[in-house]
Amino acid sequence: MTRHLVWFRQDLRVYDNTALWHACLDPEADVIALFCATPQQWRLHDMAPVRERFLWRNLTALKERLGELNIPLVVKHCQTFEDCVQDVPTLCEALGVTNLYANCEYPVNEQKRDRAIREALADKVSCHWHHDFGIKPLGLLTKTGNPYTVFSPFKRAWIERWRADPAPIYPAPEPRRCSAAVPGSELLASDKQAMDQFWPAGEDAAMNRLAHFCEDRIDHYKAKRDLPAEPGTSELSPYLAAGVISPRVCLDAAIRANRGDIHEGRQGPDTWISELIWRDFYIHILDTYPRVSMNRCFRVEGEKIPWRNAPEDFAAWCEGRTGYPIVDAAMRQLVQTGWMHNRLRMLVAMFLTKQLLIDWREGERFFMQHLIDGDLGANNGGWQWAASTGTDAAPYFRIFNPITQSQKFDASGAFIRRFVPELRELSDKDIHMPAPLMRQSLASAYPEPVVELKFARERALAAFKSV
What we know:
Layout: E1 3-8, H1 18-23, E2 30-37, H2 39-44, H3 49-68, E3 73-77, H4 81-95, E4 99-103, H5 108-121, E5 126-130, H6 151-164, H7 203-216, H8 221-224, H9 237-242, H10 247-257, H11 267-288, H12 311-318, H13 325-337, H14 342-355, H15 360-368, H16 376-387, H17 402-409, H18 414-419, H19 436-441, H20 453-465
Catalytic activity: cyclobutadipyrimidine (in DNA) = 2 pyrimidine residues (in DNA)
Pfam families: DNA_photolyase, FAD_binding_7
EC number: 4.1.99.3
């Protein structure tokens, strides 16, 4: 009896799931699904509680979809990746598994786990690993045979490769005859939260959101994506991070919205396609340069930057009380909703690393501890870009001014009013940087700025020039 085990990780879907599709190619094989819950490892990787709840809700939806295909789901409750190395081979032996299928993960700890499992299963179970988290498989190199470290040439080469060999989209498998007897699996119930309504679980919810974005928003994406008060983004990042929707399906929808082209079409779709390629770029960096997932700077000289140890300033940043309204509104959005608008992610990251001169790793960790769409590659890449320590990094002398950024991207103050209600009654002009007397006269006091911008800029420039 041929029996295939499909190990689900960051790919909680049945449509366009590379490992699942290959596992189901043999119509005579029994197919069983596996998910390993590793809560202790999740804590070590700073998984946000809101992200964990989202995972369990989507795992429940996945179990239902797999049930419709007569594919039973086994959930192993481990604690760490080391437990997986013991438990997965034991399960394979107990179920009589002949072939293991899984989609690759790229952070260093995940790769170490998978290597250990391959070794443990050698000569017992055939392992089949597939590239699925990104659009195209890894391995894109420059003409000199080196990995890309700058996005623009990577994008050009990526598009050229895609046009020569477009990524396939795999259909959901057909229902199978059910002959596999597996132990019952317990799914942890997640407490209902108010924000769960905004992030409904399951593939259907993700596909509906993609369709809505491509029909109603994508044409205006370039113009509105930087305006936090506007519904201008796709809001698909949590689904992509959990693998509830495939990035290839997203690209296919964007190309159709772009009149059939992947590049140089309409501005909105073009810009969103570029963001999908950025996602592949950060996966490429994560796989090629393991140090970025080991709490180290991509640019080695970044380790010499004299960051400040300033716990009070860091706490003010975390709690949204820096005295800069757009920064505080963004941080409160993150804490209250588990999500932050991308323009604001860049702004608050640069504020922490440049204006406050606090190590980017502190902010990166705080984001992962709160984001529903926490993804190591994208989060690390964004933080190191802002801190001028990463690939394609912003020049160290590029420092966003939070006041002018606020005036440009939240001109009416609508976003600030939503998350800093104590400033609600101020004028559109004053809300971006209230005068001291205005702060004191508010019913609910609003703090003075934690740092003066001119001083902060000079301090940051001196610190970076010293390196």
